[in-house]
């Protein structure tokens, strides 16, 4: 453990849905998954928010 630092580490993954369409999902080391998001920017925003707040 890193003292009071959050141990959440979220990763953005890209998933092909066929026909050139992709969705972005966020997976955290705490086991939670978020998404799918239609843009990578939104997914990254969620990942950062989760790492900061743990939600």
Write the layout of secondary structure elements.
Elements: E1 10-16, E2 22-28, E3 33-37, H1 40-53
Antiparallel strand pairs: 1-2, 2-3
Briefly summarize what is shown.
The protein has 55 residues and is α+β, with helices and mostly antiparallel strands.
Description:
This protein is α+β, with helices and mostly antiparallel strands. Helix content is 25%, strand content 35%. The protein has 1 helix and 3 strands. A 3-stranded antiparallel beta sheet has the order 1-2-3, with helices on one face. The longest helix is centred in the last third of the chain and has 14 residues, at 40-53. The radius of gyration is 12 Å and the shape is elongated. The two termini are 18 Å apart. The model has no long low-confidence stretch (mean pLDDT 90).
Properties at a glance:
25% helix; alpha+beta; 55 residues; three-stranded antiparallel beta sheet; 1 helix; single chain
Characterize the main sheet.
3 strands, antiparallel
State the helix count.
1
Estimate the global geometry from the Cα principal axes: elongated
Topology as H/E string? Answer: EEEH
Main sheet: which strands, in order across? 1-2-3
Q: Label the structural class.
A: alpha+beta
Query: N-to-C terminal Cα separation, in Å?
Result: 18 Å
C-alpha Rg (nearest Å): 12 Å
Q: How confident overall, as mean pLDDT? A: 90
| Low confidence ranges | none
Strand content: 25-35%
Number of strands: 3
Q: Helix content range of the residues, please?
A: 25-40%
């Amino acid at each position: 453990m890193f003292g009071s630092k959050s141990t959440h580490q979220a990763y953005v993954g890209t998933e092909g849905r066929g026909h050139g369409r992709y969705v972005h999902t966020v997976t955290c080391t705490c086991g939670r998954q978020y998404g799918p998001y239609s843009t990578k920017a939104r997914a990254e925003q969620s990942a950062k928010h989760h790492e900061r707040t743990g939600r």
